[in-house]
Structures are given as C-alpha cells and as structure tokens.
Design goal:
The protein is an alpha/beta fold. It has 3 domains: 2-222, Cation efflux protein transmembrane domain (Alpha-lytic protease prodomain-like, Up-down Bundle); 225-304, Cation efflux protein, cytoplasmic domain (Alpha-Beta Plaits); 307-388, Cation efflux protein, cytoplasmic domain (Alpha-Beta Plaits, 2-Layer Sandwich). It has 11 helices and 6 strands. The protein has helices spanning 2-16, 20-50, 53-79, 94-122, 131-158, 161-190, 195-222, 228-239, 274-292, 308-324, 358-372; strands at residues 246-254, 260-269, 294-303, 329-338, 341-351, 377-385. The strands form 2 sheets. The protein has a 3-stranded mixed β-sheet, with helices on one face. It has a 3-stranded mixed β-sheet with strand order 4-5-6, with helices on one face. The two termini are 43 Å apart. The chain crosses the membrane at residues 37-57, 96-114, 126-146, 196-214. This is Cation diffusion facilitator family transporter. One of its GO terms (cellular component) is membrane.
C-alpha cells in the first residue's frame, strides 16, 4: 500500500517535471497533517469523555504533530526555492530551521502536560474506558504505525533528516498510546488510579524527545561532521585517480541535505604545464559533481619527484614525523633559501586531542633535522583535522 502510494506519486510528479525532493516533502507533510489532525480530534474527544489526562496528553502530542506537519510543509516549500542573490547556496538549511521550530513546540507541550499530570497526581480522578474508547485508541496505534513506516520510506527516498525525525516521533507515539492503554487496563483490573503517573511519564518522554531533536538540529545548523560514508567515498575516489601524486586538506561543507561543497589540495608532478594541470583538475571536479553530487574546488600543489636532494629531505622528514607519532601526516614538503638561511617548510596534520603541543613537535623535528639532514631551519604549518 505504502510503496504503491509512493510510486504512484513519483510517477505523477515526473510527468509534471517538478522537483521530486520538495514534492515528496510536501506530500509527506500533507499526509501527516490529515492523519495527525484526525488523531488529535478523536483522542481529545475520548479524553474529555473518559476524564483521562493521559489520553488528553496523548491527544495534545498529536496536536503538536499536526503543527509539525504544517511546519514540515512550510520547511520543504522554502528549502526547495532556488538560490538567489541573498542566499547564493540555496535555501535547503531552512529544513533544519523548521525542524527546530517543531522540536521547540514538542518540548513546550511536554512541559505543559508535566504540570497537568502533577495536578492529577495530587487530585486523582477515575478513568472511564468504554469499548468505543478502546477501539479508537487501537485504531490510532495502527494509523501511527502506518504513518511512521510512510515517513521512513519517503525519508530514504529523498534523504531527509526531518522526515527521519518525524518517523521516529510517529513510532514514539505508538509506544505512548500503548502505555495509556496499559494504565487504563490496570485501573480497570485493580482500581489503582495511576493515570496521573502515566501522564507524567508521557510528559517526561515528550520533553526528552523534544530536547533531543533540538540538539540534533542545532548540530545541523552549526555544521555537523559529514557522514563517514560520504568522507570515505570521496577519499576512495581521490585515491583512485592515477594521474595525481596524492591529496590532502579535504574539507567538506554542507548547506542542506543535498547541497554539499568540498575543497581539496591535489599534489601533481611539477613538470606538468598549466594547461595539462587545468584539464586534469577539471576532470576531477566534473566527476565529483556528476557521480557524487558534490561541488569540488581543487588547489594544486606541485611536487618535485626527481630531484635527489629533495627526495632525500622528503623521506627523512616523513621518517621523523612517523617516529614521533604514527597518526601524524605530513605534506607540502619544500625547501627555501631565505637570506643566509636554508629552510624546510611543510604542513603537518595533527589529529584531535593530540598529546604533544605544537611547540614540542616543532622542537623535536628541528632537533632531528639538524642531526639527520643538516643545518636547515624548520617552519611547520599545523593543520588540525576532525575528519580522520
């Protein structure tokens, strides 16, 4: 049923030649809006009729889901807008902003019902569960399971973290509704009025879920570490390019779920002329955009591969660095005459939370250079990477 619905919608949108990602996001928002509104109204009515604060808490959770569906619609509409003068990288990050607004709303609702549940614990009331109430709650569970699976499959289709969160929220609603049924069953069987306590648990769970979502979207807005699979894919591709000597300083920037930019330093044979280097770099950038969907910018670093003195210095510097710590990576090794001084310059990549300071590393390499190579001064540019 779900696959049929998704495939039918995709076919209709392809005929219209619309942006599939925005269309699917809006479609998911509309489905969520209708289903959540239906669940809110039905649960609110049975909560009022039965006098159950936990059912009403669950209903208000569905109300927040209804509003979140509206925000999802707005989010996908704005994020689907093309780049303009004010937003040259597009509007995709607005999806994170709409997700943040949903998260704040969920948290607010949780705190409201935390207060209501405390009052119900102080003044407990009997919960009346009729067959019609039971039927509606069971139906709501089935609807939420369907909704969660639907969000899940659409999120995979368009790579949307917002819909992944919506899917998780739908399944969380299933668990909370089951908890409501259990509390009503316990009261019916034992006479214990635990409705307020169950409502309190649901409220705490809503607050926790809201705060977790807020944290996730804050991370996205601040610039979250790219997916490791994406990093490895880029590294594997660059490593497989036969014409280049090597690469380093791979940086990845994301401006939305499907808007990725990257920059990298490409090491090439210094005997290449500018035309040849330009053609090879163009090929790499084109294939990155075509095959990986990433806008890559390359910086060229010429490497002397045949001068024996240079090669000796390269080998010795690499040995020195590895003798200090195997995790250290060195690149752009070159020599320079500065006045009377002979200098060796290179970049050193230091992993996060490395035990030695930059000064300690420099002093150690300077000492080894005087001992192994000769009277050279060492100048190191330190790079701190978090993508290793």
């Amino acid at each position: 049923m779900i696959n049929f619905l998704i495939n039918r919608f995709e076919t209709s949108q392809q005929k219209k030649k619309t942006d599939l990602r925005s269309a699917f996001g809006s479609f998911a928002g509309k489905v969520g809006l209708v289903s959540n509104l239906l669940l809110f109204v039905s649960k609110l009515l049975i909560g009022i009729l039965s006098g159950s604060v936990s059912i009403m808490a669950d209903a208000m959770n569905n109300l927040s889901d209804t509003v979140s569906s509206i925000l999802t619609l707005v989010g996908f509409y704005i994020s689907g807008k093309p780049a303009d003068k004010e937003h040259p990288y597009g509007h995709e990050r607005f999806e994170y902003i709409s997700g943040m607004m949903v998260s704040v709303l969920i948290t607010f609702v949780g705190f409201q019902f935390f207060s209501t549940s405390i009052e119900r614990i102080r003044e407990p009331q009997s919960v009346s569960v009729t067959p019609i109430v039971l039927i509606i709650l069971v139906l709501s569970i089935l609807i939420k399971v369907w909704q969660g699976v639907f969000y899940q499959r659409v999120s995979k289709k368009i790579n949307s973290n917002t819909l992944v969160a919506a899917s998780k929220d739908s399944f969380n609603d299933v668990y909370t509704t089951i908890t409501v049924l259990v509390s009503a069953g316990i009261e019916g069987a034992t006479g214990l009025r635990i409705d307020g306590y169950v409502g309190l648990l649901i409220a705490c769970y809503i607050i926790y879920s809201g705060l977790q979502l807020i944290r996730e979207f804050i991370d996205e807005l601040m610039g979250l570490r790219p997916d490791q699979g994406q990093i490895d894919l880029m590294k594997d591709y660059l490593s497989a390019v036969p014409e280049i000597v090597g690469y380093h300083d791979l940086l990845i920037h994301q401006y939305g779920p499907n808007k990725t930019f990257a920059s990298v330093h490409i090491e090439i044979d210094d005997r290449w002329n500018l035309t040849m280097a330009h053609e090879r770099i163009d090929e790499i950038e084109y294939k990155f955009r075509k095959q990986l969907g990433v806008d890559l910018v390359c910086h060229i670093d010429p490497v002397n591969l045949y001068d024996q003195t240079q090669q000796l210095i390269h080998q010795e510097i690499k040995k020195m660095v590895k003798s200090i710590e195997a995790e250290l990576k060195v690149h752009d090794i070159r020599t320079l005459k500065h006045g009377e001084d002979e200098m060796i310059l290179f970049d050193l990549v230091v992993p996060a939370k490395f035990k030695l300071s930059e000064k300690e590393i420099t002093d150690e390499i300077q000492r080894k250079t005087l001992e192994k190579i000769g009277n050279y001064k060492v100048k190191i540019t330190f790079d701190h990477t978090y993508l290793l």
